[in-house]
Structure formats: C-alpha cells, structure tokens
Design a protein that fits this description.
By secondary structure, this protein is of the alpha+beta class. Helices cover 40% and strands 23% of the residues. The chain has three domains: 25 residues, no CATH class; 71 residues, 2-Layer Sandwich (Alpha-Beta Plaits); 33 residues, no CATH class. The longest helix is centred in the last third of the chain and has 15 residues.
C-alpha cells in the first residue's frame, strides 16, 4: 500500500502517525519541560547596582554576557559595564526590576515561541538575526541590539 491508500482509513492514518512520531528525536516530546531559574545576586554600592553572579546567569541562558548587558542597559535606560564575572549598572536597580528585565530577555531572546523550548541560539544571516530552536527547528527573527 502507498501513503495515499493508507491515509483514507483510520487505521492507516494512525499507522502513519506512529511512524512519524517514532522518527522524531526523543527530546521533542518533552520540549517545554525544562525551566531555567534565574536568581540574580545584587549589591548596592553608592549609586551603582552590582550583579555579582552575572556570568553564571549568562551561562544558564547560554548567551554572550555582553548581549544580555546591552539588553539590560537599553531596557533600563542605565549604562552598564562588565567587570570580570560581574555586571555593574549605574544607578539603583531593584532585584524585582532586574528579574523582570531578565524574564523579558528570556521571552524575547531565549525561549522558542513555537515549542517553548529553551535550547536555542541566535544566528546572524546577512543583516538579520534569528532565534533558532535546537528542539523543533523553528527560526524566528529577533531584533538587533
């Protein structure tokens, strides 16, 4: 029997579905199961906010620390710089504000909008940047910072 004949019956359709699902990588079935918990540790020194575990946060997100720092600076309107494993933000930024900025970053630059997976990477093609999901293969444009 060929595919066209199989799909006309319920049993044939279910057989095709079974074949397709068995051919999928195992990681796709639990794509949105993983969760990243971000707990930024901050210190306030005079008029600066220091994120002491910034490198660890970037490693958890699998992103370049300078990309995250640039995002935080643009969204908060406060200049920032990376010194070693710390991020130094000019001005006082509360822990709640920083958490919201990191959640926004994850939503825009880490989480796949199709499957909800967190195993993604940012790829540049010509002048455009795309968020490519390593789980489902989706490719979505993201803004350039």
């Amino acid at each position: 029997m060929n595919w066209e004949e199989l799909i006309r019956t319920k049993e044939g359709y279910l057989k095709i579905l079974d074949e397709v699902f068995s051919a999928l990588p195992k990681s796709v079935k639990g794509a949105g199961d993983r969760v990243i918990v971000l707990n930024p540790e901050i210190l306030h020194e005079s008029r600066r906010t220091i994120v002491t575990n910034f490198k660890d946060l970037a490693d958890k997100l699998n992103r370049d620390p300078s990309h995250i720092a640039k995002f935080i600076a643009r969204e908060s309107g406060r200049p920032s710089s990376i010194e070693g494993e710390r991020l130094i933000i000019q001005g006082r930024l509360s822990l709640e504000e920083l958490r919201k900025l990191l959640e926004l970053y994850v939503r825009e630059f880490v989480k796949c909008p199709i499957c909800g997976g967190l195993d993604t990477k940012i790829v540049s093609e010509r002048r455009l940047r795309f968020l490519v999901c390593e789980i489902c293969g989706a490719k979505n444009p993201v803004r350039k910072l």
